[in-house]
Amino acid sequence: MPDEAADAGPQPALELRRVVKAFGPVIALRSGSLALHRGSIHALIGENGAGKSTLVKIIAGLYRRDAGDFLLDGDSVDFSSTAQSKAAGIAVIYQEPTLFPDLSVTENIFMGRQPTRSLGRIDRKLMREQALELFTRLGVRLDPDRPTLGLSIADQQIIEIAKAISLDARVLVMDEPTAALSGVEVERLFAVARSLRDEGRALLFISHRFDEVFDLCDTVTIMRDGSYIATSPIADTTVAEIVRQMVGRDIATLFPKEPAEIGDPVLVVEGLTEPGVFHDVSFTVRSGEIVALAGLVGAGRSEIARAIFGVDPYASGTVKIGGATVPPRSPVAAMKLGLALVPEDRRRQGLVLGTSVARNTTMAIRTALAKLGILTSAAENAAARVWDSRLQVKTAALDAEAGTLSGGNQQKVVLAKWLATKPSVLIVDEPTRGIDVGTKAEVHRLLSQLAGEGMAILMISSELPEVLGMADRVIVVREGHVTAEIERADATAETVMFAATHKAEESAR
């Protein structure tokens, strides 16, 4: 393993060499190395816990390194605050920007440094003109006068980038910027990133999505277990090689789908309709079977799942579990009949972040655990320990807050919560979104095991490799309509995408 990420060549705009960071006895970063060059987009990849976030926080001035070198244009730096990092020309664009919602787009860009006229009055006309110039330069159209409240995540990120450019940032760090964006929004963001690269800025792009890394980036650095592993030009590597370096195993292990005995229908959906959302949706999921709901973002997949579970309404149709009809708009009745739903947004809909891991794990079975109306911590911890152990949740203690866990471990806790109810049907909405490749393999292995135990699983996923790798059947949804039902043997990227982009009658031809 090389000591440094940088190769011989032009001096990097930003360079970290063998950086170490520990929090008490826990070593978060053992040997972090990275070299960012002007006019280049550099990817940083690694599993959750690999040290990426710690490295970024050192760059941003949130943490100070314990050892190692941190250089800007060849000069040693040691930031003790985010203000120092920004003043040095570094900007970090996070997945969820933090703007002032009641202020205008322009006011957010120039907050704390508004241009002034005589007597110290703010020159709002000049400020607006400069905002428009920034958006023109970035090739985007945004109203500089509108409040940021209600803007999409994509537009908020553009505002953060405009702010960085107005500060003449020479290094931009984009930390999981596409996780909440649609395909069109991602393309716009990438166009902006490329224009910044072409201006000679150095960009760091952090993502779990390999297709985006290969589409956007010039170079990739891989980290594992807090240490630098390798740096390669994108043109000289492959997804399989990156996965092997990240997790120490071959890509073939990412989708460990084991054959399962498929039995009788457990979940039967017939004619489910909610005007303007989905129409005449019908399908079955049998015991031991993993059925994928596939389609483009906005096709109505999550809305169908939420209606089945009783969270969202539907005007007509029926949902049956084991032959018993599930009453509409009644999640409690659905749970009693053996249905569980792992939602897409684990942080907002699946967890109470300020509550312990044990409390989150047992949240859906608290009534059953109580004796004479009293639930003890011992009973709660004992029940939580069973599922958290099975799912290999990595946490310092069961009383640790769920919000302190990594994204992958938070997803495991949500899965544990619902598996503790011992469902016969499990609906999982984007089960591996935003988690690293190693944890994805663990989640896939768990789903395969559950199907092998006879559970019926309905999986919603936007990742085609996941759909093709895990599903026994694929139900494709387009604009709220089922356009195709494809058996595993016939499911390919082409057949699924064709059905996702064509009407049912066209897909059947």
UniProtKB/TrEMBL annotation:
The keyword Membrane applies. It comes from Microbacterium deminutum. Residues 14-250, 260-504 form the ABC transporter domain. InterPro entries: AAA+_ATPase, ABC_carbohydrate_import_ATPase, ABC_transporter-like_ATP-bd, ABC_transporter-like_CS, P-loop_NTPase. The keyword Membrane applies. PROSITE patterns: ABC_TRANSPORTER_1, ABC_TRANSPORTER_2. This is Sugar ABC transporter ATP-binding protein. One of its GO terms (molecular function) is ATP binding. SUPFAM superfamilies: P-loop containing nucleoside triphosphate hydrolases (SSF52540). Gene3D superfamilies: P-loop containing nucleotide triphosphate hydrolases. Keywords: ATP-binding, Cell membrane, Membrane, Nucleotide-binding, Repeat, Sugar transport, Translocase, Transport. Pfam families: ABC_tran.
